[in-house]
Amino acid sequence: MNFDILISGAGPAGLCLARALSGHGLRIGLVEQQPLAALAQPAFDGREIALTQPSAQQLRTLGLWQRIEALAPHALSPLRDARVLNGPSPFAMVIGHGLGTQSELGWLVSNNLIRRAAFDAVQDARQTHGDITLLAGEQVAGVRTDAQGAQVTLASGCALQARLLVAADSRFSATRRAMGIAADLHDFGRSMLVCSMTHEAPHHHAAWEWFDYGQTLALLPMNDDPASGAHRASVVLTLPSHAIEPLLALDPAAFGHEMTRRFARRLGPMRLASTRHAYPLVAVYPRRLVAQRFACVGDAAVGMHPVTAHGFNLGLLSIDALAGSVLAAHAAGQDIASPELLVRYEKTHRRATRPIYLATQLITRLYTHESPPARLLRGVALQLGDRFRPFKRAVAASLTGTH
């Protein structure tokens, strides 16, 4: 089979890229190892995604926002403020929505709903334009590119050709590795447990990032439970990996008591409201984002630590940059995978992501180090940051995506 663009990976990034490219006369292929049923009905995976204002607008443009609203009317939750806490101190540096121009810093929505909406949008584009071929249940076994194009062999033996090959198959991208591109990995030796919980005290749609001693806690505000009316949030607990497994094994009541204790009862009694999921914390930054007739997008382009909530937003940024360049070249009758185009894309995305990636690494090191001087420095940094309004405006701009 021959394509103009072949995308390896039909997660949110790959699906959004296919949708962005559809309707412009390009032949698009999507290869995904998951079966079609898993793509059509993605299971809840515990993760709530924080969307900046530009990301929210991009989802509207792609038709995902409207589909999410139709699928789950209470799913899109406004993120009005952010609170950063350190240790047992009740003091918090508050980044309020008043520092920006919107009534909220951003939005929160479950990852599985983004995946479902993206799949439905691609299916609609396939029916409307007939330009997307989805090869589900297939795995990339071999990759080769030359000046004329990319040649991909699937595990089933099927051979594919494309003018441009795009990796969108996770931060541990097998396609990127097959292209001989190395990546710098930072394994934090920790895992995060994520789930939804109800709680007694209201969160006022403020997110928490609590660098407590011996643990890191995050609270992502969800809309109240539509059935019970109880206050609800996505909870993220980060611990050394060996300490996560016992928490997954607790019965729901015991788990609720344990999380209530870990949150120092600041939200009152907490109760488990979903399944629990654990993920290792590994940040990844490839040494190159492009090669001959090849580019990376999404987590394959940069795999962020979730502490600054930029991961999916940077993925959408990569999709917007690459799709815009490809469509402009196609409209002008130029090569959609020329070395000049790919180099420009790489430079653009590196400028957008490298400073954030390095700053996130620095924040993570500072706020998870447990020595007494580090704890003191953390507290002082929060106090000074809260008093320095230009700094808080910069943080708010980063959260909203308007910097």
CATH architecture of the largest domain: 3-Layer(bba) Sandwich
The chain-level structural class is alpha+beta
What's the quaternary structure here?
single chain
- Give me the number of helical elements: 12
- The parts where pLDDT drops under 50 for at least 5 residues are none
SS elements, strand count: 19
CATH fold-level label of the largest domain:
FAD/NAD(P)-binding domain
CATH class of the largest domain: Alpha Beta
Strand content: 25-35%
Q: Name the shape in a single word.
A: globular
Average pLDDT number: 92
Distance between the termini: 43 Å
The largest β sheet comes out as:
8 strands, mixed
Q: Summarize the amount of helix as a percent range.
A: 25-40%
Give the secondary structure arrangement, pairings included.
Blueprint (H helix, E strand, L loop, with lengths): L1 E7 L3 H10 L6 E5 L3 H5 L7 E4 L1 H10 L1 H8 L5 E3 L1 E6 L5 E4 L10 E5 H19 L2 E5 L3 E6 L4 E5 L4 E9 L6 H5 L4 E17 L6 E7 L2 E8 L8 E10 L3 H6 L2 H11 L7 E3 L4 E10 L3 E2 L2 E3 L14 H21 L7 H30 L3 H16 L1 H12 L3
Parallel strand pairs: 1-2, 1-11, 2-8, 5-13, 11-19
Antiparallel strand pairs: 3-7, 4-7, 5-6, 9-10, 10-11, 12-15, 12-16, 12-17, 13-14, 14-15, 18-19
Helix pairs in contact: 1-5, 1-9, 4-5, 9-10
Structure explained in plain terms:
By secondary structure, the protein is α+β, with helices and mostly antiparallel strands. It is 38% helix and 30% strand. It is built from twelve helices and 19 strands. Strand 1, helix 1 and strand 2 form a beta-alpha-beta unit. The chain is globular and about 60 Å long.
